[in-house]
Amino acid sequence: MDTGVLFSTWGHWSGESAKPQHSQFQFVFGGNRKLKAFMGWDGIIVLDTSVDIIDMCREYMLRAKNESCGQCFPCRLGTEEMSRILQRICDGFGKQGDIERLKDLAYLMKDSSKCGIGETTPRPLLDALQHYRDRFESAIADKQRRFQGNYLYKITAPCTDACPSHLDIPKYVENIRLGRLEESLAVIRENCPLPGTIGRVCVRPCEFHCRRTLMDEAISIKSLKRFVADQEIAQQAEPTFSPPPRKQGRVAIIGAGPAGLSCAFYLGRLGYQSTIFEALPEPGGMAAVGIPDYRLPRELLRREVEMVEKMGAEIRYNVRVGQDITLEQIKDEGYRAVFVGVGAHEPSKMRCEGEDAGYEGFMTGVEYLRRIAFGQKPLQGKKAVVVGGGNVAMDCVRSSLRLGFDEVNLVYRRTMSEMPADPVEIEEAQEEGVTFNFQIQPVRIVAENGKVRALECLRMQMGEPDASGRRRPEPINGSNFEIECEAMIPAIGQTCSVDLVLPDERGIELTRWKTIEVDEYTFRTGQLRVFGGGDCATGPATLIEALNAGKKGAKYINQFLDQSTCYSEDDDHMEKLIARMQVYNSDEKLPYHGFEKRARQQALDPARRIKSFAEVDSGLTRPQAVKEASRCLRCYRIALAAL
Amino acid sequence: MDSTLLLNGREVDFRPGQTILEVAEAHAVRIPTLCHLARTGPTATCRICVVELLDSDILVPACATPANAGMDVRTDSKRVKTARQEILRLLIARGHHDCPVCDQGGECTLQDLVHEYGLEHVPMTEPPRDSPPEYATSLIRYWPERCVLCYRCVSACRDYKHIGAIDIQGAGNQGRVVAVNPDICEACGECLLACPTGALTENLSRFKYRTWLADRVSSTCPFCGCGCQMEINVHKNRVVGITSHEDVGSNQGSLCVQGRFGYEFIADADRLTRPLIRKNGVLQEAGWEEALHYIADHLQTIRNDFGADSIAGLTSTSCTNEEAYLFQRFMRTAIGTNNVDSSARDGHWKTLAGLKNSLGLPGMTASIHDLYKARTILVAASDTTREHPVYANTLLEAVHQQEARLLVLDAESTSLAQRAEIWLQPQPGTETDLVNGLLACILEENLGDQAFISTQTSGLEALKTSLAGLTPDVVSSRTGVPEEKLRKAAALYAQARPGATLFGSEMKGISQKTALVQSLINLTLACGHLGREGGGLYPLAAGGNAQGVCDHGVLPDFFPGYQDLSRNEIRQKFMNTWNVNRLPETPGLTRTAMFEQAQAGKLRGLYLLGDNPLDFDLHPAPDPGAVEQALRKLSFLVVQDIFLTETALMADVILPGACFAEKNGTLTSSERLVQRVRKALNPPGEARDDQRILMDLARSMGASMDFASPGAILEEIAGINPLMAGISYPRIDRRGIAWPCPNARHPGTSRLYAEGFQNTPAAFFTGANTA
Ligand SMILES: Cc1cc2nc3c(=O)[nH]c(=O)nc-3n(C[C@H](O)[C@H](O)[C@H](O)COP(=O)(O)OP(=O)(O)OC[C@H]3O[C@@H](n4cnc5c(N)ncnc54)[C@H](O)[C@@H]3O)c2cc1C
Ligand code: SF4
Ligand code: SF4
Ligand code: SF4
Ligand code: SF4
Ligand code: FES
Q: Are residues A115 and A12 located together in one domain of the fold?
């Protein structure tokens, strides 16, 4: 197969396993521009003969010099010196000995720098000096000024790359270490408008891709975010934003969930006013009516929503679009663009006898949690059963304990290790006294006089591996048994049903899962002025993905309103390209082990905390946070693409 | 064994958690450092300390790399040396290092490293043309062209002092140390100490001397009870600077603005240089012989006419131990009265008396460094950052690095209150109620240390009775502190053990100081926070030698070492040593009583050694007018001081004494450490060492009190004061010793009651025994 790759050293610095398939290197940017060469933390890839490697090295080192934080000497001084030498060669004033000097400096920097920039940026230069030495020699001998190429550049890190909204994690963590808390929060807000919320309930893909894991334990990235957000509240400080350029026209946003709020926040920063139409009397979407208060106190969420309002958003509550007002009407009211962020709220079916019978004592997880969020006690009794293994199920069992159920059983088809819920959630639920029942499948709801009395279940075992090699759970025949309960709560997931929310929609295409179809870069639907994102586009996902969708939506709405057209920008293509290059390499070998465990927040005592919906975790103390922040290795990686 | 590694081919062992640098230091292998500051997390910026690990393709910084078992470390391989040389070369080439005009030349880590690694022919950039940038304090000058951007100053300010006045701003090589918060700079000079180059220099005056020309005399800072160790730099009989070292003294190199920069008064033109005698209402210069005889005559006349008890003596809290001892001996023997006291009366002595009554010994129960081990720290009515900076440094370090929990009890907002986990802010005047409330809550909920209470204390039942009715709601409404906060604080203080309690001796604005101190002692006892590393009561003395002045008998009711005046065998012991056949038996007048008696016309002669009662900022008095009247009423006032103070202006005779840098002696810090002050220069003009003045005056009065040296005075003290028995000049030459030190081989006692209260249990104060 023709991979298009002419030359590549990619992957040899951090070990073969890090090497993506060569076929993945081919990449097309907007306007059908092809990737010609790539320079980064693991070497060089050349796909086109027209690339001038020497000029590319110059550009790369210039970027490295500008990115150098200046803290460690070899990187601060080395990048400057190397950049100067490379510039001189490209200007036609190269000197004898420059190649050796570059090599010495590159080795010094690679060997003895403090962070990822210093350690990885000399690598492609060393590759170039080795494999293209003759070209460097003739460049010095020819004394010709070289032509400057066309490059795209981006800086990332394993954690940043893993984060759906690409927060500059090393930077905000370092700001905490240096005591610059306001700056830290400002860095977070660049890509996350709800720091206190995300700092409490994010599913934290970043931490699962933290390079420090290879040394001892991952950085507590989430708790650090919460820490700075909480500090702002403790100091009674208001964030300062430079006033945005005032722009003409309003934007309509449907749904005050994370996606919609994020869109409004970033539109505000770009200078647009917006109106959010929300069906419920409460902002926050699933963050408010799904996630319980003991994980995310409502006042905190409301404060962050207020911040969004201050950025220029007006929220109209109790307006169900499609029912109280149609999308067409909204557009006719003069809104220049629309962002749809209506979420995914339909509960999935268990395929269990009796789930549609309307028994008293039966309620789906999302509804159960929503009612709790509005202050009700939706189900009565002493014994509850919850079915499912994800975070929603965890929220249901733990909320049940807090509502006064004495005996709470969780029923899950597979084993503990396969539970998608966050391990911390599982641990905390266990501490609180939830009984976990694994490898069990519900088959029938047993009711008496229209009231739930028990759940009939079957035991499961792992079957033979199927064609894909995955073993599926299979029921053990005749293993039926009952778990007594007065309340039965399935929490096995939600689906989207945008057709229900927006019944009148034309032009917005839906996928086969009834989610709306949007462009992967611009988040625009098939309709010119309508954008969308969050759970309604992805199906049930995560807060941070929804926030990212809102942020991108705002960016492209701005582009569209400014330029009347909508095209994907290079930076977003770079993001995608980099993600292919495997920023996190779980096989990497670090030269030594560390012994510093990650910081843990103080939690309320289990016996006490199940008595109320008061927040369980109390956040890191300042000393803890500073210490934790200083564990970060700053694994920055610089990527340069030649077009 | 698990914990061994190869260090340059030699197998060495280490403790898990140590860095490679620490392992190397422990095994006497030198690894150069530039940015490393021992007590902060590594900044790890300079990479001078890189070492090679076998099997690793990069070098690692020794200061920031944890030692791993089985590592094969090379500290001086060719690769390592080349890297170090290269870094130094880049560094020197980037700045402008004109060593001959640099104040730091000769004492610069960078210069030393360049020399050690044999760099030659490095081109130097042009000198900068722009005027020097402003720094956080005008006492320090910043030289960007010498700055290597190592972050030591920034970490020192942030992590040692917990201030954060400066930061480095600007990308890469454009970085500059910038005063990001100049308003909060305390001008302590911690950054100056930390800077490894000449990028920060003292800015009082330049070109005074070259570092190698000055004499450096180790001494103790006399300004507060912290007892900071420092070096006085003298050149041509003038103090040209104060330096300090991270590895010397409890202060670990830290000083405050007074200690580091406050030396210029020594060369002040207004210093007293000759004795003065008031003749015809005017102060006139006189010779020493004349002045001393004049005093002797007058004092003798008063004694003959009105009795010895119509004369009294007062010292300040900054005289040395030897002076304090001589002074009280002078008053008790040459004059024959117990009317001797000091300005510690209303301050430090109050707290010491409480400690003595309840626990047995009048002193801090632990050491500054014990604070590192405290789990909770309660700071009551003390603006510690300002008044006792070294305690503040240490406790904040404990809070920030060891995760100790900080509680502050103060009606006023202080910088510590702002950083506390819980700040209890009672209505002014209700501090004691609040402490009693905490105590009541702890006893009620059995949060205290039951074992300690039952085996080591007495008086619990009476205490409980006296606290009856002080329920959290009552206390809350009385003090204005929310009930929930009070309960939280009580639980924290009682359960995060051991706990340390700090309290200032000034307690500005608090009327019932004694009651508050007693309640704090009760609180500590109830939680068993005594005798354990990290627990204890920390009375913080204002005045450099308040502790020593009390220790050495400048008290109307105690002989040196708090020995009982009224006991015959003790009086006999002192009579023998002092070579007299009579000593006054009844307690003398306290400082307060002296002014009352003077006003009533009963006290006629007063001898002030350094005390300046008219400085009401320093010694707040309920009725300032009365003090002035009292002084006016005296028929004879002698003032011995270094400046013509307000009080001196009223004197009949003024004797010019010496400041701390001009004499030898010892001071006792709040943590009971007896440490040396050393003579670094001569007093100005005819001013004299105060010990000599006291001895000469005694002789003029016909008493004999001669010692060949201050060391000899301490020898006499050691013979007669059991707390000091084992302390002598040779033993404290390099490091102080904390009393009690019963014999010459005893290391001193930095933590009191470590063996518990075996014979006499510690007594809870109750209404009954406080009255
Ligand atoms: C119980 C539970 C726990 C979860 N826990 C976590 C977690 O810990 N971490 C995490 O990252 N993610 C978690 N999630 C997922 C996360 O909450 C969602 O991915 C996220 O809220 C999606 O945001 P969204 O804005 O796309 O949609 P939503 O949050 O669903 O918001 C959509 C909003 O639109 C409104 N709306 C819907 N239809 C209309 C209409 N027709 N007119 C007007 N308004 C309308 C809704 O009322 C809602 O306010 C959890 C989800 C649930 C259900
Ligand atoms: S160590 Fe820091 S920079 Fe590296 S992956 Fe973890 S959080 Fe990111
Ligand atoms: S800082 Fe050090 S190297 Fe630089 S000029 Fe001063 S003495 Fe020389
Ligand atoms: S003098 Fe003290 S407070 Fe001021 S910047 Fe230096 S270290 Fe900080
Ligand atoms: S001023 Fe001194 S301590 Fe501060 S960064 Fe510069 S060289 Fe380092
Ligand atoms: S001393 Fe270790 S990096 Fe500077």
A: yes
